[in-house]
Design a protein that fits this description.
Strand order of the largest sheet: 6-5-4-3-9-11-10
Structural class: alpha/beta
Helix content: 40-55%
Number of strands: 11
CATH topology of the largest domain: Rossmann fold
Number of domains: 2
CATH architecture of the largest domain: 3-Layer(aba) Sandwich
CATH superfamily of the largest domain: P-loop containing nucleotide triphosphate hydrolases
Distance between the termini: 45 Å
Strand content: 5-15%
CATH class of the largest domain: Alpha Beta
Largest sheet: 7 strands, mixed
Number of helices: 21
Radius of gyration: 26 Å
Shape: globular
């Protein structure tokens, strides 16, 4: 390994000066672009759009210095690429956050997919250019590069950065999606039940069901984070809008530790942390039945998958290791579609998991397998490239990296939904204002207004800075030098609590507010309620058995008290919420 070259203070000072000059030049370019866009009506629309597209700067998340000649070994190959907001726009947003927050009615949470994605416009899905086995690798990559660049140019020619949301601008990540859609027999589109309309791209649905002629299953994941009436309402909305969908509810949780496990493991499980023991899931049987209905005849033998699901439901002692060595001895019948894809090759069903970052694709695979087989993280972009795992010898799961599709939603919502990394948010206060205008944030956090010493004063208006300041004081967040309230750290903490689900921001389908009582008494809600209660009884039974095997009575009592406190804070209308942690 070569020795590091000495770097003097003089060189470092010169480097910082050059960086300031480049930043100043970019700021001037952004301000010139904003002024040009304001006068675009006096000139050619095409020239103004071309200038706006040329001025777009890309923000490469967690970019690492690398000089690797081979592109396949480049550590920055799969980095998140979003367009970067100008300094002028960020300053404008910060000034707006000092104004009082306007509380919106409950109808503001109703969202429609057509308003987000504008189906049939330039915001549609970038599709892989046509290719054959005779096409060379270099020619195909060149064709893909040219096509993707024209795709971005068309988007920025119609919409500007102020209208667009953050979306993935890294071609390598889109290539992962293209490969997963080509190799899969069934597509699983995983969405978060808190924001399903945001995570569902109609262009992807049309591409899979119409162009590729493949079935798609919509997985409404994390059903423990929403009322059951809202879960059923979203299912009804998607069934009416997209009739070819097969919809499944899903959530995963940690099973209690074994009888020989330590009490510390049991306490982690009570708090909801998935450490120790196995990972269980709710919805595995429904997903199995949906795949069985979609597999043509006896093309694939899914009996091993059914046996695995049944053994997990009755709590048998089954080894949950992933079997990658055994290969099916008698391949089933194969089918070749119009695109040349061989379905059920060698008698194996390939299921591709696609969706936005942080919707739980990797957690879904871990829940189906029964243990951790793929790495998960709360940071978007953790899964870099697609990875395959054998659930059984005849079922192969393919985990695709999270992809952010172009849309017209507000950028603060993308941060609150976990799409944009919280650590890279330059203006967290606008996100706090967006959140506080839709939920009673000061009431939930029990904040005292700086102008009074009382709680829940209705006449006083809050600003985003007021909320962050009071939360910093309550949590003890202070700056290192002046000991002032660290409002940036407080805002960051609130955003992370929202992404984790400790602060609930649930969007609803159109018309849900008027018919909320009808959805609460829906017959399917009763079915889900009974299933959740049965799962919860088994979960508590495992915890009680584990705790009783330990002799430290004081720690057992404290653990039980924390479990009771957590149960009181959860949504009693959804028993699945008691399976997840804070």
């Amino acid at each position: 390994m070569p020795r590091k070259v000495a770097f003097s203070v003089k060189q470092k000072k010169k480097q910082l000066q050059e960086r300031r000059q480049r930043k100043h030049a970019r700021s001037n370019a952004d301000s010139d672009t904003d002024s040009d866009n304001g006068d675009v009506q006096g000139g050619s629309v095409a020239e103004g759009a071309a200038a706006a597209a040329a001025a777009i700067s890309v923000n490469k998340i967690n970019q690492q210095p690398s000089k690797v000649p081979d592109r396949r070994l480049d550590p920055n190959r799969f980095r998140l690429h979003f367009f970067k907001l100008s300094d002028k726009e960020l300053e404008k947003k910060k000034e707006e956050c000092r104004k009082p927050i306007m509380i919106l009615p409950e109808q503001a949470l109703e969202t429609d997919i057509d308003d987000i994605y504008k189906p049939g416009t330039v915001l549609d899905l970038p599709k892989r250019p046509a290719w054959t086995s005779a096409t060379s690798k270099e020619a195909l990559e060149k064709r893909e590069d040219e096509y993707f660049q024209s795709y971005l140019d068309n988007i920025f020619a119609v919409y500007g950065p102020k209208e667009l949301s953050f979306f993935e601008m890294n071609l390598e990540t889109w290539r992962q999606l293209w490969r997963v859609t080509e190799m899969s027999d069934i597509m699983l589109l995983v969405t978060d039940i808190r924001h399903p309309a945001l995570h569902f791209s109609p262009a992807l649905y049309d591409h899979v069901t119409r162009d590729l002629n493949k079935p798609m299953i919509l997985v409404l994941n994390k059903v423990d984070l929403a009322p059951l009436g809202l879960v059923v309402a979203w299912k009804d909305y998607f069934q009416k809008r997209f009739p070819k969908l097969h919809i499944v509810f899903f959530t995963s949780y940690a099973e209690a530790a074994s009888h020989q496990g330590s009490l510390q493991q049991s306490k982690c499980l009570i708090k909801g942390h998935k450490k120790g023991g196995q990972i269980k899931s709710v919805g595995s049987r429904e997903l199995l039945e949906a795949c069985e209905s979609l597999v043509c005849g006896k093309a694939v033998d899914l009996s091993s998958w059914r046996s695995k699901v049944e053994s997990q439901e009755v709590d048998k002692d089954e080894d949950a290791d992933v079997d990658t060595s055994e290969v099916p001895t008698s391949p089933g019948q194969t089918f070749t579609d119009d695109n040349g894809h061989v379905r059920y090759k060698d008698g194996v069903l390939t299921i591709g998991c696609v969706g936005y970052p942080n919707v739980g694709k990797s957690s879904l695979i871990n829940g189906l397998v029964g243990k951790k087989v793929v790495s998960v993280s709360k940071t978007p972009g953790h899964t870099k490239h697609f990875q395959t795992i054998f659930l059984t010898p005849t079922v192969k799961l393919c985990d695709c990296p999270g992809l952010v599709f172009p849309s017209l939603i507000e950028k603060p919502l993308q941060v609150l939904a976990g799409i944009f990394p919280v650590a890279h948010v330059r203006d967290p206060y606008s996100c706090i204002a967006y959140l506080a205008s839709r939920i009673s944030l000061p009431l939930i956090l029990k904040l005292i207004h700086p102008k009074t010493n009382q709680l829940n004063v209705k006449d006083l208006r809050w600003t985003a800075y007021d909320i962050c300041t009071e939360w910093a004081v309550k949590c003890g967040y202070h700056t290192a030098r002046g000991a002032r309230p660290d409002i940036y750290r407080a805002a960051n903490h609130i955003l992370r609590m929202t992404v984790d689900g400790r602060l609930r921001l649930n969007f609803t389908p159109p018309g849900y507010t008027e018919s909320k009582d009808t959805w609460r008494s829906h017959p399917e809600v009763t079915v889900l309620l009974k299933r959740g209660q049965s799962v919860l009884r088994g979960y508590r039974r495992e915890i009680d058995t584990t705790l009783s095997s330990d002799t430290d009575e004081e720690e057992v009592l404290s653990s039980t008290a924390s479990a009771d406190q957590r149960t009181e804070e959860t949504d009693v209308s959804n028993p699945f919420s008691m399976l997840s942690g804070d």
